[in-house]
Design goal:
This protein is α+β, with helices and mostly antiparallel strands and 584 residues long. Among the domains are: 144 residues, no CATH class; 84 residues; 59 residues, SH3 type barrels (Roll), CATH 2.30.30.60; 95 residues, Alpha-Beta Plaits, CATH 3.30.70. The protein has a five-stranded antiparallel beta sheet with strand order 9-8-7-6-10. It has a four-stranded antiparallel beta sheet with strand order 12-13-11-14. Strand 6 and strand 7 form a beta hairpin. The radius of gyration is 40 Å and the shape is elongated. The two termini are 29 Å apart.
């Protein structure tokens, strides 16, 4: 309790200066990490203009920067790797260009995938039904469930991409394969595509034709049986090697964990010169092995993705996730340090404000510790939630979820809120306790029939240390009725029992009043008393005794020692009473 009532140092003193310097250093670190993470990437327009000379033939004129904002862009991918960028007019451009670029890109990707990725349009049940009907010699069952029902599969060199002129003068790209009598349409080069790329429609169509033909032939080769078998064998060998490394890392980690207690005992006994250094080294190796196990798990996930064609970008994203997550953690850790430093500075200024009544200044210094601890935890909690959301949104699979999935996740969060409504109620009650000065660390309170000193105030619960040293954890939602014995000031009633057969009641009352006055004038106790002790008089009467009460008003937390001291003095004075009738 004395620690809670220590005078707060001035913001101009040394610790606050060091805190300010640490705050500035953390702010600089946060800014540097933020600049590194949020470094601007080339826009789609700049990327398209930069790739234009390398994609074939004559280089186009760069797109007009003034018109870049007039288009919506969509990226078309083959095997997950971007190949071309299509455009559509933005809202308010004054032209109706049909579907948006993102929708066009999805449709074009679906058309392109038919040429290299074999897909079966039927479900497993439908394929079994087809096999059953085929077995029963029912004709006409293979057209629907045949993976090559469109006649688009074949060797890579047999694929050709051609440019077809439409009746209105437009340019259409189509694929010619031996299994089809007519070309398979892929996409139409629009006026927006030509305007964005800075080329005439026929020149852009010819460029895209050569690029798509090369990439589609390469994709067909990737899905060949030999390449699929080789990829699977390589993935299995890599997984086996990574699994072996993980087993060795886990075994080494368990050995280091078993060695730590023994080294800790040796350090405590002081039996070896290098035991402390060996303990630190073993602890560091244990942490490194833990990180290695996590990295090996991530690498195994990336290898599993690489086993299937078209997942190279996703596998690279998975491999980079530890580094990205580490950078996000460092950035938010720096933000947390800066936020906690700002909260500490603001609270210090609030606690040491000179315009506050002197009677309330000590109370503010006491609340400073509670507010600093709780607000620091809130900052950590907010940063942890932001880190979790930021990390989840960075996962490639979850980043591309549809709006229906987002709505479904919102429904799940609502269900979780109903399940954990008790925790939410405690959290809200904890926020109310921050604003409402019901108690602070160091106060002696009664909550729900339990009395003790407040040793910790959290966002969900409050910890009380009882007189028998038990710790009682009270949820914040149960702190509706609080009796605070040490807020701003404290008081105690002193009860003295006098026998009903006492003949000189007035003399006994005068003796008690005299002792109260002497106690109030004692230089050791007078500074701790906010008011002189008051004799309240006879408060109750039993069959044998009269209860005489006195009231003490003391500084916060001084009521207990003052009450015990006054009782001891009254015992000594009443023991000298001639008839010895007083019973304190």
């Amino acid at each position: 309790m004395t620690r809670a009532l220590q005078p707060l140092r001035s913001p101009r003193q040394g610790p606050l200066v060091r805190r300010s310097l640490a705050l500035l250093m953390a702010l600089g670190l946060a800014l540097s990490i933020g600049l590194a993470v949020l470094q601007p990437h080339p826009t789609a327009a700049a990327t398209a203009a930069a790739e234009a000379p390398a994609l074939g033939g004559h280089g186009p004129a760069p797109a007009d920067p003034a018109s870049a904002g007039s288009f919506r862009l969509g990226t078309v991918r083959i095997l997950g790797v971007p190949v071309i960028t299509v455009a559509s007019s933005a809202v308010g451009s004054g032209s109706d260009s049909g579907p948006e670029a993102a929708e066009r890109a999805r449709v074009i990707e679906g058309n392109l995938s038919q040429l290299y990725e074999p897909s079966n349009p039927c479900t497993p049940g439908e394929r079994l039904g087809e096999a059953l009907l085929d077995h029963l010699s029912v004709e006409g069952t293979k057209a629907a469930c045949d993976p090559n029902h469109l006649g688009l599969q074949g060797p890579p060199e047999a694929l050709r991409v051609v440019v077809l002129r439409e009746p209105g003068g437009g340019q259409r790209l189509a694929a010619k394969v031996p299994g089809r009598a007519s070309p398979f349409p892929l996409l139409t080069v629009t006026e927006q595509d030509a305007a964005f790329n800075g080329l005439p429609a026929d020149a852009l169509a010819e460029r895209w034709r050569g690029l798509l033909e090369r990439r589609l032939r390469s994709a067909r080769g990737v899905f060949g049986e030999e390449q699929l078998d080789g990829r699977l064998r390589t993935a299995l060998v890599s997984l086996a090697a990574l699994a072996l490394l993980m087993v060795l890392a886990v075994a080494s980690w368990r050995f280091s964990q078993r060695s730590l207690p023994r080294l800790q005992r040796r350090v405590a006994e002081g039996s070896g010169r290098f035991d402390r250094l060996l303990l630190q080294l073993t602890h560091t190796v244990s942490r490194l092995l833990t990180a290695l196990v996590l990295l090996l798990g991530v690498a195994m996930g990336a290898v599993l993705l690489l086993a299937w064609p078209g997942q190279i970008p996703a596998a690279i994203d998975v491999l980079l996730q530890p580094v990205v997550v580490l950078m996000k953690a460092l950035a938010l850790a720096a933000v947390a340090v800066v936020a906690r430093g700002l909260v500490g500075l603001l609270l210090a200024q609030w606690a040491s404000h000179l315009a506050v009544n002197p009677d309330h200044r000590a109370r503010r210094r006491q609340r400073y510790l509670s507010l600093l601890r709780v607000l620091g935890r809130l900052v950590n909690l907010v940063c942890l939630l932001l880190f979790a959301i930021w990390t989840v949104l960075g996962i490639p699979v979850l980043r591309d979820l549809s709006s229906n999935a987002v709505l479904a996740s919102g429904a799940v969060l609502g269900a979780l809120a109903l399940v954990f409504q008790g925790l939410l109620r405690d959290f809200v009650a904890g926020l109310v306790l921050l604003l409402d000065d019901r108690y602070a660390i160091g106060d002696v309170v009664e909550i729900g029939g339990r009395s003790g000193e407040v040793v910790d105030v959290g966002v969900l619960s409050t910890e009380l240390r009882c007189a028998d040293q038990r710790v009682v954890v009270v949820p914040n939602s149960h702190c509706e009725q609080v009796v605070n014995h040490t807020k701003l000031r404290s008081g105690a009633e002193v009860t003295v029992l006098l026998s009903r057969s006492l003949t000189d009641l007035a003399g006994a009352m005068a003796l008690i009043a005299e002792e109260l006055a002497a106690f109030g004038a004692d230089p050791r106790w007078a500074p701790k008393l906010l008011e002189p002790p008051r004799l309240l008089g006879i408060d109750a009467m039993t069959e044998d005794d009269l209860q005489v009460k006195a009231l003490l008003i003391t500084e916060a937390g001084q009521q207990g020692p003052a009450r015990r001291e006054l009782l001891g003095r009254l015992v000594q004075r009443l023991q000298g009473w001639p008839q010895q009738q007083g019973k304190p």
